[in-house]
Amino acid sequence: MTMAGSGSFRLVWKKTERSVEIMTIQVFSTVTDVSNAAASMVADQAKTAIARHGSFHLVLSGGTTPRHTLERLAEPPYATGIPWNKVHIFWGDERWVPPDDSRSNQHMARTALLDHVAVPAGQIFPIPYRQSPEEAAEGYESTLRRLFGKQPPRFDLLFLGLGTDGHVASLFPGTDAVMEQRRWVCHTQTQGPAADRITLTFPVINRARTIIFLATGEEKAPKVREILAAAGVPPRLPAQLVHPVNGEIYWLLDQAAASLLTEKI
């Protein structure tokens, strides 16, 4: 399967007798095209979820391409075409910074989208800023357990970015959080400013009905190829541990991020 230009293909894996994973990879000419496609998928998934159970549970991601997607959703036809009063908003991860900090994923989502559409305030569930990142993680897990009960939530749509080191959400290579199986939310650390992070863990991420990876730019190409070429190989990167149970994964890539995908993948 050559991915030199725009295109789409679907791969289906039957993991067990009771579990099926479907992966669709789509390559677009530009970052704008990726963002437009992601916004259209949000609208479609919202319609499906609301018809199924009366609400749409959406998990947001930080990053430049996700921001473009949120800005697109704040414009016609999505700003008025999506029934935002039935949308519930969550976050996959957050930096341990105040919510008005420019590095905050919540701040980004509010300025790009939530300040412009009619999601009820009581249906927006940001990761809290508490006295310590550990308390913030405990607080968010408590919120999820209050809302969803004993079993991890089954979000309708969950966005993930892809780090150049293969991390997703704030699950970084070599950290304990990657292997966490009990907690739904935990504190972890990375290098540089705002090193403390709060993140959903894989037991929650992999319960999502649909996961959308957004990856753009040439710097993402090596990891995109490594991840998508690694079927059947023991995972080395956090992104290789994303396997929704009876769910779908969509990879939305621009041509730069897909530039190393070849017929051998």
UniProtKB/TrEMBL annotation:
E.C. number(s) listed in UniProt: 3.1.1.31
UniProt xrefs under InterPro entries: 6-phosphogluconolactonase_DevB, 6PGL, Glc/Gal-6P_isomerase, NagB/RpiA_transferase-like
Keywords: Hydrolase, Isomerase
EC top class, as a word: hydrolase
Molecular function terms from GO: 6-phosphogluconolactonase activity; isomerase activity
PANTHER family membership: 6-PHOSPHOGLUCONOLACTONASE
Stated name of the protein: 6-phosphogluconolactonase
Organism name: Lucifera butyrica
Upper taxonomic lineage: Bacteria, Bacillati, Bacillota, Negativicutes, Veillonellales
This protein's encoding gene: pgl
